[in-house]
Amino acid sequence: MKDFLLLLITAFTFSNVNAATKNTQPEIGKYPQQYTSGDYVVTILRLGDESKNTALIKVDGIDNKHDGQIYKHTKKCQNKQCTSYIYETTEIPNKKTWWTINASISYAHTNLNFFPPTIDKKHSLNKSKRPKGFNSQKFYKEYLGQLALRNKK
Asked: Which of 67, 56, 6, 11 is CA-nearest to residue 29?
């Protein structure tokens, strides 16, 4: 009987931990936006509801240690109408802040410029097709794993 009670208490505890973990996880966008610039592929996934102005951004094709790393960014409007904005992160090691994307909207056209992490050279971004089979939960978990590894250093 003691074993049964212990098993029951353990199961109850784990179910509460899992429920608490799910409740603390932010809302995650279902579909990413993907852009290309030469050899670079930039994936942007909304994190939190739209009012939070946060996104996870991953850049593939960088010839340095930031290749494939996912960083949380905050969208910061540069004017009242937010027709000009940046995506800024504080998660890149040894950088106080980094502007990865700078956007300006004029009429129906959005001009996106991109600065690969730790590379001070501007590139233009072009919209590409949404990746098939993209799993936003897996992308978010990959981000959490990378963040944990960065925080250990």
From this structure: 56
Structure tokens at 20: 């608490």
Q: Which of 34, 16, 24 is nearest to 139 (CA)?
A: 34
Structure tokens at 88: 């800024």
Reading the block at residue 143, the tokens are 């981000």
The alpha helices in the chain, defined as continuous H runs, are 2-24, 136-152
Angle ∠(140,145,151) on CA atoms, nearest 5:
120
Give per-residue pLDDT as tens, 18-43. 444 455 888 999 999 999 998 899 99
Question: H-helix or E-strand containing 60?
Answer: strand 54-60
Domain boundaries of the chain, sorted by first residue? 33-152
Cα–Cα nearest to 74, from 102, 52, 96 = 52
Q: What percent of the chain has pLDDT over 70?
A: 84
3-state secondary structure of 152: helix
27-47 CB burial, b ≥16 within 10 A, e <16: eebeebbbbbbeebbbbbbbb
DSSP letter for 25, please. Answer: S
